[in-house]
Amino acid sequence: MTMHASWRLIVASLFVANLLFAAMGASHPAEAAVSKSDQDRADRFFTDAQKRLRAGDAAAAMIELRNALQRNPGHLPARQLLGELSLQAGNVAAAEKDLRRHYNATKDERTAGKLAFALVQLRRFDEALVLLGADGTSTFDGARVAGYAYASVGRRTEAEAAFRKMLSIDPKSHEAMAQIARLRLETGDIEAGKEMLDTLFTVEPNSVEGWLLKSDLASKLNRLTEAREAAEKAVTLAPGDQRALLQKARVATAAGRTGEAETAIRAVLERSPKNPLALYHLVPLHSDYDSLIGLG
Fold first, then answer.
1. Model pTM score
2. Are residues 5 and 103 in the same domain?
3. Using only C-alpha atoms, what is the Rg of the chain?
4. Whether 1 and 99 share a structural domain
């Protein structure tokens, strides 16, 4: 599924929620102190956000959503959409706050899955599994959360079982394929990992995760040209993705292209000045450590 397609699905799913929200009027406690004028302004900002999102401009959509929530903090569709877009953009802490507020107000199952995934990325695994409940891992989002939780603590067998559960629910889940390939490669099963990667690219040729895995594998096999091309592909698909930029830097460093490596690392530091991985990879490129003081 392309990024634009995923945005369209989010907008469609929230359309009904917006209608329900409008039907509730001022009955929701969070709206009680909000004037009719501010409610109307918030609705207009939310509508503008949907238009921005359909046009493929997620950053502009997020600005409109924040404007909506300034006018009416109880605008639940805006809260939900902002949380989901923050999660997609990698701002997990912000996503967790907005998704939790939406979930606390609605107990929405979709939001529960997104919130649990955010908690996993924040390494709050127990909270995520408690949120999903005993039967949570039988769903796609539940299996997803369990897979990442198990993988994060080194329980690869349980992790792969969870990701394969995702795949049984959605046979075209390129995310599940990528994670299974990663686990196979981590355990040294190169052939099974490559086979799953080939399947992944058949389903989703533009999988950033897939291209990062391909670059990492090629680098480990000392196929640096192939590794560089795969890393460049990942950066092209997701120009602001810090993982892609750092992979490009790692490959460039291995090939002795220090200027290219530093450019990629500094692109990460522009977005995240205290990124420890970026600083870690930058240090070996400088013989004069003092020149780096002030970056951290």
1. 0.62
2. yes
3. 21
4. yes
